[in-house]
Design brief:
Largest sheet: 8 strands, mixed
Order of helices and strands: HHEEEHEEHEHEEHEEEEHHH
Helix content: 25-40%
CATH topology: Rossmann fold
CATH architecture: 3-Layer(aba) Sandwich
Strand order of the largest sheet: 1-2-3-6-7-9-11-12
CATH superfamily: Alpha/Beta hydrolase fold, catalytic domain
Number of domains: 1
Shape: globular
Number of strands: 12
Protein backbone atom coordinates (compact mmCIF):
# COMPACT_ATOMS: atom_id res chain seq x y z
CA UNK A 1 0.00 0.00 0.00
CA UNK A 2 1.18 3.54 -0.75
CA UNK A 3 2.88 4.80 2.41
CA UNK A 4 0.52 6.69 4.72
CA UNK A 5 -2.21 6.75 2.07
CA UNK A 6 -5.23 4.96 3.48
CA UNK A 7 -8.93 5.64 3.11
CA UNK A 8 -10.47 6.77 6.40
CA UNK A 9 -13.56 4.58 6.69
CA UNK A 10 -14.65 6.08 10.00
CA UNK A 11 -14.87 9.82 9.32
CA UNK A 12 -16.42 11.98 6.61
CA UNK A 13 -14.02 14.90 7.00
CA UNK A 14 -11.45 15.74 4.31
CA UNK A 15 -8.64 13.22 4.48
CA UNK A 16 -5.35 12.96 2.60
CA UNK A 17 -5.50 9.21 2.13
CA UNK A 18 -9.13 9.22 1.05
CA UNK A 19 -8.48 12.04 -1.44
CA UNK A 20 -5.55 10.12 -2.92
CA UNK A 21 -7.45 6.88 -3.40
CA UNK A 22 -10.54 8.57 -4.78
CA UNK A 23 -8.27 10.33 -7.30
CA UNK A 24 -6.56 7.05 -8.21
CA UNK A 25 -9.92 5.35 -8.70
CA UNK A 26 -11.23 8.26 -10.80
CA UNK A 27 -8.08 7.97 -12.92
CA UNK A 28 -8.14 4.18 -13.18
CA UNK A 29 -11.70 3.89 -14.46
CA UNK A 30 -10.55 5.48 -17.74
CA UNK A 31 -8.98 2.13 -18.64
CA UNK A 32 -11.09 0.39 -21.25
CA UNK A 33 -11.38 -2.91 -23.08
CA UNK A 34 -13.87 -3.81 -25.78
CA UNK A 35 -16.76 -5.96 -24.60
CA UNK A 36 -19.67 -7.12 -26.77
CA UNK A 37 -18.75 -4.51 -29.38
CA UNK A 38 -18.56 -1.67 -26.84
CA UNK A 39 -15.08 -0.15 -27.20
CA UNK A 40 -15.63 2.16 -24.22
CA UNK A 41 -16.39 -0.57 -21.67
CA UNK A 42 -14.28 -0.34 -18.49
CA UNK A 43 -11.37 -2.77 -18.41
CA UNK A 44 -12.40 -4.51 -15.20
CA UNK A 45 -9.34 -6.76 -14.94
CA UNK A 46 -6.96 -3.96 -15.88
CA UNK A 47 -8.46 -1.52 -13.38
CA UNK A 48 -8.30 -4.11 -10.61
CA UNK A 49 -4.68 -4.91 -11.46
CA UNK A 50 -3.77 -1.21 -11.41
CA UNK A 51 -5.36 -0.64 -8.02
CA UNK A 52 -4.03 -3.86 -6.48
CA UNK A 53 -0.50 -2.92 -7.55
CA UNK A 54 -0.62 -0.27 -4.81
CA UNK A 55 -3.08 -1.85 -2.37
CA UNK A 56 -3.84 -5.56 -2.36
CA UNK A 57 -7.00 -4.88 -0.38
CA UNK A 58 -8.92 -4.29 -3.61
CA UNK A 59 -11.12 -7.30 -4.37
CA UNK A 60 -13.29 -6.71 -7.43
CA UNK A 61 -14.25 -4.24 -10.17
CA UNK A 62 -17.59 -4.40 -11.96
CA UNK A 63 -17.91 -2.13 -14.98
CA UNK A 64 -20.97 -0.51 -16.53
CA UNK A 65 -21.36 1.27 -19.86
CA UNK A 66 -24.31 2.77 -21.68
CA UNK A 67 -24.22 5.40 -24.41
CA UNK A 68 -21.69 8.03 -23.30
CA UNK A 69 -21.69 7.00 -19.62
CA UNK A 70 -19.24 4.63 -17.96
CA UNK A 71 -18.66 3.75 -14.34
CA UNK A 72 -17.56 1.01 -11.96
CA UNK A 73 -18.55 -0.43 -8.62
CA UNK A 74 -15.25 -1.13 -6.90
CA UNK A 75 -14.95 -3.45 -3.94
CA UNK A 76 -12.18 -3.07 -1.37
CA UNK A 77 -11.95 -5.18 1.75
CA UNK A 78 -12.62 -2.06 3.83
CA UNK A 79 -15.01 -0.04 1.65
CA UNK A 80 -17.01 0.18 -1.58
CA UNK A 81 -16.74 2.89 -4.22
CA UNK A 82 -18.75 4.16 -7.17
CA UNK A 83 -16.24 5.53 -9.70
CA UNK A 84 -17.44 7.46 -12.77
CA UNK A 85 -15.45 8.16 -15.93
CA UNK A 86 -15.27 11.50 -17.71
CA UNK A 87 -14.95 12.11 -21.45
CA UNK A 88 -11.81 11.95 -23.58
CA UNK A 89 -13.12 14.52 -26.06
CA UNK A 90 -13.12 17.47 -23.69
CA UNK A 91 -12.62 20.16 -26.35
CA UNK A 92 -15.57 18.92 -28.43
CA UNK A 93 -17.62 18.48 -25.27
CA UNK A 94 -17.10 22.12 -24.29
CA UNK A 95 -17.95 23.33 -27.80
CA UNK A 96 -21.23 21.42 -27.86
CA UNK A 97 -22.28 22.06 -24.28
CA UNK A 98 -26.05 22.12 -23.64
CA UNK A 99 -27.67 23.64 -20.56
CA UNK A 100 -31.24 22.33 -20.48
CA UNK A 101 -32.63 21.33 -17.09
CA UNK A 102 -34.29 18.24 -15.65
CA UNK A 103 -36.72 18.55 -12.71
CA UNK A 104 -36.10 15.59 -10.41
CA UNK A 105 -35.56 14.57 -6.78
CA UNK A 106 -35.44 17.83 -4.80
CA UNK A 107 -34.75 20.34 -7.59
CA UNK A 108 -33.35 20.96 -11.04
CA UNK A 109 -30.30 19.29 -12.57
CA UNK A 110 -28.37 19.67 -15.81
CA UNK A 111 -30.33 17.47 -18.21
CA UNK A 112 -27.35 15.86 -19.95
CA UNK A 113 -25.60 15.00 -16.69
CA UNK A 114 -28.86 13.73 -15.22
CA UNK A 115 -29.55 11.34 -18.09
CA UNK A 116 -25.95 10.09 -18.18
CA UNK A 117 -26.26 9.24 -14.49
CA UNK A 118 -29.62 7.55 -14.97
CA UNK A 119 -28.15 5.37 -17.72
CA UNK A 120 -25.94 3.68 -15.10
CA UNK A 121 -27.49 4.31 -11.70
CA UNK A 122 -30.03 1.48 -11.64
CA UNK A 123 -27.57 -1.25 -12.64
CA UNK A 124 -24.85 0.06 -10.32
CA UNK A 125 -27.30 0.10 -7.43
CA UNK A 126 -28.24 -3.53 -8.12
CA UNK A 127 -24.58 -4.46 -7.84
CA UNK A 128 -24.18 -2.38 -4.69
CA UNK A 129 -27.20 -3.97 -3.01
CA UNK A 130 -26.03 -7.46 -3.95
CA UNK A 131 -22.66 -6.83 -2.28
CA UNK A 132 -24.34 -5.47 0.83
CA UNK A 133 -26.78 -8.37 0.99
CA UNK A 134 -23.91 -10.87 0.91
CA UNK A 135 -21.94 -9.17 3.70
CA UNK A 136 -21.05 -11.43 6.65
CA UNK A 137 -22.83 -11.06 9.98
CA UNK A 138 -21.57 -10.56 13.51
CA UNK A 139 -22.47 -12.74 16.49
CA UNK A 140 -25.80 -10.94 16.84
CA UNK A 141 -26.73 -11.40 13.20
CA UNK A 142 -26.05 -7.81 12.10
CA UNK A 143 -24.56 -7.31 8.63
CA UNK A 144 -20.97 -6.05 8.68
CA UNK A 145 -21.39 -3.58 5.85
CA UNK A 146 -18.60 -1.49 4.41
CA UNK A 147 -19.01 2.27 3.86
CA UNK A 148 -19.56 3.67 0.37
CA UNK A 149 -17.50 6.41 -1.27
CA UNK A 150 -18.33 8.17 -4.55
CA UNK A 151 -15.85 9.72 -6.99
CA UNK A 152 -15.42 10.90 -10.56
CA UNK A 153 -13.53 13.24 -12.86
CA UNK A 154 -14.99 15.73 -15.36
CA UNK A 155 -18.37 14.45 -16.57
CA UNK A 156 -17.80 11.62 -14.10
CA UNK A 157 -17.68 14.19 -11.31
CA UNK A 158 -21.09 15.52 -12.32
CA UNK A 159 -22.41 11.95 -12.35
CA UNK A 160 -20.91 11.36 -8.91
CA UNK A 161 -22.70 14.49 -7.69
CA UNK A 162 -26.08 13.39 -9.00
CA UNK A 163 -25.51 9.92 -7.56
CA UNK A 164 -24.89 11.54 -4.17
CA UNK A 165 -28.12 13.50 -4.66
CA UNK A 166 -29.98 10.22 -5.16
CA UNK A 167 -28.51 8.85 -1.95
CA UNK A 168 -29.38 11.82 0.24
CA UNK A 169 -32.87 12.16 -1.27
CA UNK A 170 -33.67 8.51 -0.55
CA UNK A 171 -31.93 8.64 2.85
CA UNK A 172 -29.30 6.08 1.85
CA UNK A 173 -25.90 6.15 3.56
CA UNK A 174 -22.62 7.12 1.92
CA UNK A 175 -19.45 8.14 3.67
CA UNK A 176 -18.09 10.88 1.38
CA UNK A 177 -17.79 12.05 -2.22
CA UNK A 178 -14.64 13.43 -3.87
CA UNK A 179 -14.81 14.93 -7.36
CA UNK A 180 -12.11 16.31 -9.64
CA UNK A 181 -12.58 18.95 -12.34
CA UNK A 182 -16.34 18.57 -12.39
CA UNK A 183 -18.79 20.94 -14.13
CA UNK A 184 -21.75 22.46 -12.31
CA UNK A 185 -24.50 19.85 -12.14
CA UNK A 186 -27.49 21.60 -10.56
CA UNK A 187 -29.19 24.95 -10.11
CA UNK A 188 -28.44 27.36 -7.29
CA UNK A 189 -31.55 26.58 -5.23
CA UNK A 190 -31.01 22.84 -5.68
CA UNK A 191 -27.38 23.19 -4.61
CA UNK A 192 -28.43 24.91 -1.38
CA UNK A 193 -30.58 21.92 -0.46
CA UNK A 194 -27.87 19.47 -1.49
CA UNK A 195 -25.24 21.25 0.61
CA UNK A 196 -27.48 21.22 3.67
CA UNK A 197 -27.68 17.43 3.40
CA UNK A 198 -24.04 16.71 2.56
CA UNK A 199 -22.18 19.03 4.92
CA UNK A 200 -18.59 17.88 5.55
CA UNK A 201 -18.77 14.90 3.21
CA UNK A 202 -18.55 16.37 -0.31
CA UNK A 203 -15.20 17.66 -1.60
CA UNK A 204 -14.68 19.23 -5.01
CA UNK A 205 -11.15 19.70 -6.40
CA UNK A 206 -10.47 22.39 -9.04
CA UNK A 207 -7.02 22.57 -10.63
CA UNK A 208 -5.66 26.02 -11.54
CA UNK A 209 -7.09 27.10 -14.92
CA UNK A 210 -9.25 24.02 -15.55
CA UNK A 211 -12.12 25.29 -17.70
CA UNK A 212 -14.61 22.51 -17.02
CA UNK A 213 -15.60 23.63 -13.48
CA UNK A 214 -16.61 26.98 -15.00
CA UNK A 215 -19.50 25.47 -17.01
CA UNK A 216 -22.41 25.76 -17.16
CA UNK A 217 -22.06 29.40 -16.12
CA UNK A 218 -23.50 30.94 -12.97
CA UNK A 219 -25.32 33.40 -15.22
CA UNK A 220 -27.36 30.41 -16.42
CA UNK A 221 -28.49 29.66 -12.88
CA UNK A 222 -26.15 26.77 -12.13
CA UNK A 223 -24.06 26.39 -8.99
CA UNK A 224 -21.31 24.21 -7.59
CA UNK A 225 -21.74 22.13 -4.45
CA UNK A 226 -19.58 20.93 -1.60
CA UNK A 227 -16.32 22.22 -0.20
CA UNK A 228 -13.90 23.61 -2.79
CA UNK A 229 -10.29 22.48 -2.70
CA UNK A 230 -8.47 24.76 -5.14
CA UNK A 231 -5.12 23.68 -6.60
CA UNK A 232 -2.83 26.58 -7.48
CA UNK A 233 -0.42 26.47 -10.42
CA UNK A 234 2.39 25.51 -8.01
CA UNK A 235 0.36 22.57 -6.66
CA UNK A 236 -0.63 24.16 -3.36
CA UNK A 237 -4.07 23.15 -2.06
CA UNK A 238 -6.38 25.85 -0.69
CA UNK A 239 -9.82 25.32 0.81
CA UNK A 240 -11.04 28.91 0.67
CA UNK A 241 -9.90 30.29 -2.67
CA UNK A 242 -11.70 33.58 -3.25
CA UNK A 243 -12.40 35.13 -6.62
CA UNK A 244 -9.34 37.38 -6.42
CA UNK A 245 -6.97 34.48 -5.72
CA UNK A 246 -8.41 32.48 -8.61
CA UNK A 247 -8.17 35.51 -10.89
CA UNK A 248 -4.51 36.17 -10.07
CA UNK A 249 -3.60 32.51 -10.40
CA UNK A 250 -5.36 32.29 -13.77
CA UNK A 251 -3.25 35.17 -15.06
CA UNK A 252 -0.09 33.54 -13.71
CA UNK A 253 -0.92 30.21 -15.28
CA UNK A 254 -1.82 31.77 -18.63
CA UNK A 255 1.44 33.72 -18.76
CA UNK A 256 3.54 30.66 -17.91
CA UNK A 257 1.81 28.65 -20.63
CA UNK A 258 2.15 31.32 -23.32
CA UNK A 259 3.82 29.98 -26.42
CA UNK A 260 3.47 26.34 -25.38
CA UNK A 261 1.33 23.82 -27.22
CA UNK A 262 -2.18 23.16 -25.96
CA UNK A 263 -4.75 25.24 -24.18
CA UNK A 264 -3.99 25.80 -20.49
CA UNK A 265 -7.59 25.33 -19.40
CA UNK A 266 -7.81 21.93 -21.07
CA UNK A 267 -4.34 20.78 -20.01
CA UNK A 268 -5.17 21.64 -16.40
CA UNK A 269 -8.22 19.40 -16.69
CA UNK A 270 -6.13 16.22 -17.01
CA UNK A 271 -6.73 13.72 -14.22
CA UNK A 272 -2.98 13.20 -13.89
CA UNK A 273 -2.67 16.79 -12.64
CA UNK A 274 -5.20 16.11 -9.90
CA UNK A 275 -3.53 12.85 -8.85
CA UNK A 276 -0.15 14.59 -8.59
CA UNK A 277 -1.58 17.36 -6.41
CA UNK A 278 -3.36 15.10 -3.93
CA UNK A 279 -0.38 12.75 -3.79
CA UNK A 280 1.92 15.64 -2.82
CA UNK A 281 -0.77 17.08 -0.50
CA UNK A 282 0.85 20.49 -0.07
CA UNK A 283 -2.19 21.92 1.68
CA UNK A 284 -2.27 25.48 3.01
CA UNK A 285 -5.08 25.04 5.55
Amino acid sequence: MTANKQVDTQKTMLNEGTAYWMARIAQSVYQRKEKDGDKTFPDEAGILETLKSEDDGFLDVKGFSKKSAQGCVIEHQDYLCFGFRGTDEIADWLDNFAVSRESALFGEFHSGFWHSTEDLFGDMMKRYRAIRASAPTDEEGNRLRRPLFITGHSLGGAMATITAAHFVYHDLPFMAAYTFGQPRAMTYDTARIFNSWTSNRFYRFHNNNDLVPRVPGRIMGYSHVGQLIYIKSDGELHNDAGFWLRFLDAIEGAVEEAGKKGIDGIKDHGMDKYVAAVETWNKQF
